[in-house]
Amino acid sequence: MIRNRNDEYDLIRNIVYAQGYDEQLSFFLCSMYRYMQDARWRGGCHAACSIIYVALTELGYHVDLCLGEVKAGALYFDHSWILLDGKIIDIAVAMIPAGRGYASAPIILDTDIGTNQRHKLQYGIYRSGLDEETERVRNMPFVEYMDNYPKVKDGLWGVLKLVFPEKTDIEELREKYKNTQRNYIQRGE
Question: Looking at the 3D structure of the chain, how many domains does it have?
C-alpha cells in the first residue's frame, strides 16, 4: 500500500535500480511523475509519453513510443506508453480522467508501483480501433504535436524543460525528432 508521494518516488527508484538502470532514469521518471501530479495532468498519456520519449532518448536509451488500446479488467481505453528494452513505462495510466475508472498505479519497467508486482494490464490489444482523437495524434507529425500543446509556453517542449533541464535547446530537439513516429500496436486479445 502506498502511503504518500515520497513512498511512490522511493518505489520508482527501487524498481529502476533493481532492474539495473541508473540514477538518471529514476530521477527523470520521478520528476515527470511529480510534474503530472502537481499539474493534475489527467488524460495526458500521449503528451506524457512524447516527453518521456524525448528525454529517455536524450539520456541514451533506445525506447519505442507506442500507441494503441489497453485493457484494465473490464475497462478498455486508447492510450500511449513507452517501451524501454521491451519493458513498459506508463506513468499516465495512473492519471486517467475521473469517470473512466481506475486502471493502475504507474507502471515502471513492467512493475505496477502500487503492488510492486508485474502489471496486469493488456497493452496493444485490438478491440475496436482508435477513436478520432487518438487517430489524430497518431497521424500528426511528432514535432507539430509537441509544438501545439496549449497549456504551457513552448508547448510540450516547455514541459520538457521543466522536467528535464539537461537538454533545453528546443530548435535542436525539433530538428532531431522531426521524423519520429508513434508505433501503433494492435494484436488480438
Answer: 1
Rounded to whole angstroms, the Cα distance separating 124 from 116 reads 22
Residue 98: which domain range?
5-185
Low-confidence ranges of the chain (pLDDT < 70): 1-6, 96-103, 167, 188-189
- pTM more than 0.85: yes
SS3 140: coil
In sequence order, which ranges of the chain are alpha helices (DSSP H)?
5-18, 23-38, 45-58, 132-139, 142-147, 155-163, 170-176
List, in order, residues 6 or more apart from 78 with CB less than 8 Å away. 67, 68, 69, 70, 130, 131, 133, 134
Q: What is the dihedral of CA 156, 181, 19, 126, to 10 degrees?
A: 110
